Protein backbone atom coordinates (compact mmCIF):
# COMPACT_ATOMS: atom_id res chain seq x y z
CA UNK A 1 0.00 0.00 0.00
CA UNK A 2 2.82 2.40 0.86
CA UNK A 3 4.59 1.65 -2.45
CA UNK A 4 1.41 2.35 -4.41
CA UNK A 5 0.81 5.73 -2.75
CA UNK A 6 4.49 6.63 -3.25
CA UNK A 7 4.18 5.89 -7.00
CA UNK A 8 0.95 7.88 -7.21
CA UNK A 9 2.65 10.77 -5.40
CA UNK A 10 5.53 10.68 -7.89
CA UNK A 11 3.10 10.69 -10.82
CA UNK A 12 1.26 13.66 -9.30
CA UNK A 13 4.48 15.66 -8.83
CA UNK A 14 5.74 14.70 -12.29
CA UNK A 15 2.45 15.83 -13.78
CA UNK A 16 2.55 19.04 -11.72
CA UNK A 17 6.10 19.81 -12.83
CA UNK A 18 5.18 19.09 -16.44
CA UNK A 19 2.20 21.47 -16.38
CA UNK A 20 4.29 24.22 -14.75
CA UNK A 21 7.12 23.80 -17.26
CA UNK A 22 4.81 23.70 -20.30
CA UNK A 23 2.84 26.74 -19.07
CA UNK A 24 5.97 28.71 -18.17
CA UNK A 25 7.69 27.95 -21.48
CA UNK A 26 4.50 28.92 -23.36
CA UNK A 27 4.22 32.19 -21.47
CA UNK A 28 7.89 33.03 -22.00
CA UNK A 29 7.78 32.19 -25.71
CA UNK A 30 4.70 34.36 -26.21
CA UNK A 31 5.85 37.33 -24.10
CA UNK A 32 9.45 37.48 -25.33
CA UNK A 33 8.44 37.27 -28.96
CA UNK A 34 5.84 40.02 -28.56
CA UNK A 35 8.59 42.16 -27.00
CA UNK A 36 10.93 41.26 -29.88
CA UNK A 37 8.36 42.25 -32.50
CA UNK A 38 7.74 45.58 -30.79
CA UNK A 39 11.46 46.18 -30.26
CA UNK A 40 12.56 45.29 -33.81
CA UNK A 41 9.70 47.39 -35.24
CA UNK A 42 11.02 50.48 -33.46
CA UNK A 43 14.72 50.07 -34.24
CA UNK A 44 15.74 52.17 -37.25
CA UNK A 45 19.56 51.95 -37.28
CA UNK A 46 19.52 48.32 -38.52
CA UNK A 47 19.03 47.55 -42.20
CA UNK A 48 15.41 47.15 -43.30
CA UNK A 49 15.92 43.58 -44.55
CA UNK A 50 17.65 42.43 -41.36
CA UNK A 51 14.86 43.96 -39.29
CA UNK A 52 12.18 42.32 -41.48
CA UNK A 53 13.83 38.90 -41.16
CA UNK A 54 14.22 39.29 -37.38
CA UNK A 55 10.57 40.33 -37.05
CA UNK A 56 9.61 37.32 -39.19
CA UNK A 57 11.67 35.11 -36.87
CA UNK A 58 9.77 36.46 -33.87
CA UNK A 59 6.39 36.07 -35.60
CA UNK A 60 7.15 32.45 -36.45
CA UNK A 61 8.24 31.72 -32.88
CA UNK A 62 5.17 33.54 -31.55
CA UNK A 63 2.98 31.25 -33.70
CA UNK A 64 4.63 28.23 -32.09
CA UNK A 65 3.91 29.71 -28.65
CA UNK A 66 0.27 30.56 -29.33
CA UNK A 67 -0.80 27.66 -31.56
CA UNK A 68 1.34 24.74 -30.33
CA UNK A 69 2.73 25.45 -26.84
CA UNK A 70 -0.04 27.31 -25.00
CA UNK A 71 -2.81 24.82 -25.87
CA UNK A 72 -0.55 22.04 -24.56
CA UNK A 73 -0.89 23.18 -20.94
CA UNK A 74 -4.19 21.37 -20.45
CA UNK A 75 -3.04 18.12 -22.14
CA UNK A 76 0.09 18.21 -19.97
CA UNK A 77 -2.22 17.86 -16.97
CA UNK A 78 -4.82 15.45 -18.39
CA UNK A 79 -2.68 13.39 -20.77
CA UNK A 80 -5.24 13.76 -23.57
CA UNK A 81 -5.96 16.18 -26.42
CA UNK A 82 -9.35 17.84 -25.78
CA UNK A 83 -9.44 20.17 -28.81
CA UNK A 84 -10.37 17.67 -31.54
CA UNK A 85 -8.79 16.45 -34.75
CA UNK A 86 -9.20 19.69 -36.72
CA UNK A 87 -7.28 21.77 -34.16
CA UNK A 88 -4.70 18.98 -34.01
CA UNK A 89 -4.12 19.32 -37.78
CA UNK A 90 -3.94 23.12 -37.52
CA UNK A 91 -1.51 22.83 -34.62
CA UNK A 92 0.67 20.32 -36.48
CA UNK A 93 0.79 22.38 -39.67
CA UNK A 94 1.40 25.71 -37.92
CA UNK A 95 3.97 24.21 -35.56
CA UNK A 96 5.96 22.55 -38.34
CA UNK A 97 5.69 25.57 -40.65
CA UNK A 98 6.62 28.05 -37.94
CA UNK A 99 9.68 26.12 -36.80
CA UNK A 100 10.79 25.79 -40.43
CA UNK A 101 10.29 29.52 -41.09
CA UNK A 102 12.17 30.25 -37.88
CA UNK A 103 15.18 28.25 -39.12
CA UNK A 104 15.04 29.92 -42.52
CA UNK A 105 14.70 33.41 -40.98
CA UNK A 106 17.90 32.95 -39.00
CA UNK A 107 19.61 31.90 -42.23
CA UNK A 108 18.21 34.93 -44.06
CA UNK A 109 19.72 37.29 -41.49
CA UNK A 110 23.12 35.72 -42.19
CA UNK A 111 22.64 35.87 -45.97
CA UNK A 112 21.49 39.49 -45.74
CA UNK A 113 24.55 40.49 -43.70
CA UNK A 114 26.81 38.57 -46.12
CA UNK A 115 25.34 40.53 -49.05
CA UNK A 116 25.72 43.83 -47.19
CA UNK A 117 29.40 43.16 -46.46
CA UNK A 118 30.30 41.56 -49.80
CA UNK A 119 28.49 44.02 -52.10
CA UNK A 120 28.06 47.25 -50.09
CA UNK A 121 27.64 49.45 -53.17
CA UNK A 122 24.96 47.24 -54.76
CA UNK A 123 23.24 46.17 -51.53
CA UNK A 124 20.40 48.75 -51.63
CA UNK A 125 19.49 47.83 -55.21
CA UNK A 126 19.74 44.07 -54.57
CA UNK A 127 17.88 43.95 -51.25
CA UNK A 128 14.61 45.85 -51.62
CA UNK A 129 11.49 45.97 -49.49
CA UNK A 130 9.50 44.21 -52.24
CA UNK A 131 12.04 41.38 -52.57
CA UNK A 132 12.14 40.90 -48.80
CA UNK A 133 8.34 40.70 -48.66
CA UNK A 134 8.29 38.18 -51.53
CA UNK A 135 10.98 36.06 -49.85
CA UNK A 136 9.11 36.06 -46.52
CA UNK A 137 5.80 35.21 -48.22
CA UNK A 138 7.54 32.46 -50.19
CA UNK A 139 9.03 30.97 -47.04
CA UNK A 140 5.65 30.80 -45.33
CA UNK A 141 4.00 29.35 -48.43
CA UNK A 142 6.69 26.70 -48.94
CA UNK A 143 6.71 25.70 -45.26
CA UNK A 144 2.90 25.59 -45.04
CA UNK A 145 2.58 23.45 -48.17
CA UNK A 146 5.28 21.12 -46.80
CA UNK A 147 3.40 20.47 -43.57
CA UNK A 148 -0.05 20.45 -45.16
CA UNK A 149 1.00 17.85 -47.77
CA UNK A 150 0.81 14.77 -45.50
CA UNK A 151 -2.78 15.67 -44.52
CA UNK A 152 -3.74 15.55 -48.20
CA UNK A 153 -2.62 11.90 -48.39
CA UNK A 154 -5.25 10.86 -45.86
CA UNK A 155 -8.86 10.16 -46.80
CA UNK A 156 -10.12 12.07 -43.76
CA UNK A 157 -7.26 14.65 -43.90
CA UNK A 158 -6.19 13.60 -40.37
CA UNK A 159 -2.43 13.09 -40.30
CA UNK A 160 -1.10 14.75 -37.13
CA UNK A 161 -1.72 12.94 -33.86
CA UNK A 162 -1.48 13.72 -30.16
CA UNK A 163 1.70 12.52 -28.46
CA UNK A 164 1.33 12.09 -24.70
CA UNK A 165 5.07 12.37 -24.06
CA UNK A 166 5.17 15.84 -25.71
CA UNK A 167 1.67 16.94 -24.60
CA UNK A 168 1.31 18.28 -28.14
CA UNK A 169 -0.53 17.49 -31.27
CA UNK A 170 1.87 17.41 -34.19
CA UNK A 171 5.50 16.28 -34.40
CA UNK A 172 4.21 13.15 -36.09
CA UNK A 173 6.17 11.29 -38.75
CA UNK A 174 4.14 8.41 -40.16
CA UNK A 175 5.94 8.42 -43.51
CA UNK A 176 9.67 7.76 -43.44
CA UNK A 177 10.07 9.33 -46.89
CA UNK A 178 8.35 12.52 -45.72
CA UNK A 179 10.64 12.66 -42.71
CA UNK A 180 13.70 12.17 -44.94
CA UNK A 181 12.63 14.75 -47.51
CA UNK A 182 11.80 17.48 -44.99
CA UNK A 183 14.86 16.63 -42.92
CA UNK A 184 16.96 17.10 -46.04
CA UNK A 185 15.47 20.13 -47.80
CA UNK A 186 14.57 22.33 -44.81
CA UNK A 187 18.19 22.91 -43.70
CA UNK A 188 19.44 23.12 -47.30
CA UNK A 189 16.81 25.54 -48.60
UniProtKB/TrEMBL annotation:
It comes from Capitella teleta. InterPro entries: GPCR_Rhodpsn, GPCR_Rhodpsn_7TM, TAAR. The lineage of its organism: Eukaryota, Metazoa, Spiralia, Lophotrochozoa, Annelida. Keywords: Cell membrane, G-protein coupled receptor, Membrane, Receptor, Transducer, Transmembrane, Transmembrane helix. GO terms for cellular component: plasma membrane. The chain crosses the membrane at residues 16-40, 52-74, 86-111, 132-150. The keyword Cell membrane applies. It is a multi-pass membrane protein. This is G-protein coupled receptors family 1 profile domain-containing protein.
